[in-house]
Design goal:
two-stranded antiparallel sheet; 60% helix
Length: 150
């Protein structure tokens, strides 16, 4: 503590001013950097969610076409391409009965998924539940003109 007092007494006003200005510049620079980085991170997260939502919407349109036509080959090929390109980690598409009609795990096709069936029932009852986005999951109802197909 004595060393700081001696240093403070021996330092000229000009040197003290320069030190205080440098400290102020460092604090401002750090504050601005933190604000810019947090804002950029927030924007990237929003863009990533929008990107995933657009992929899910495209899959939902293709799924509605597949459900109506009964041809799931194109939908399965699109899922395979999205997974191989790293755009999605996994997907399950259920019809209105809760039966998985398309999935990245072929062994799940034809089985019923209780969790997705419950979400589908909630979507039928509540229009807000037709689209749920969390950190790692996205639930989007497959519908045509408001009629939920899956």
């Amino acid at each position: 503590m004595r060393i700081l007092k001696k240093l403070h007494r021996r330092t000229s006003i000009k040197s003290k001013g320069i030190l205080y200005v440098m400290l102020l510049i460092a604090i401002i620079y750090t504050s601005v950097s933190i604000l810019v980085l947090s804002s950029a991170r927030r924007n990237l997260v929003v863009q990533l969610k929008q990107f995933h939502l657009s992929i899910a919407e495209k899959l939902a349109v293709n799924a509605s076409d597949s459900i109506l036509s009964g041809d799931y080959g194109f939908l399965m090929e699109q899922i395979r391409q999205l997974i191989s390109s790293g755009q999605i980690k996994g997907v399950s598409i259920v019809d209105s009965r809760g039966v998985i009609i398309a999935s990245n795990d072929i062994s799940n096709i034809g089985q019923s998924d209780r969790r997705l069936s419950e979400r589908l029932e909630n979507a039928l009852e509540n229009s807000d539940a037709r689209r749920e986005i969390s950190e790692s999951d996205l639930f989007l109802s497959v519908e045509i003109d408001g009629d939920i197909l899956g």
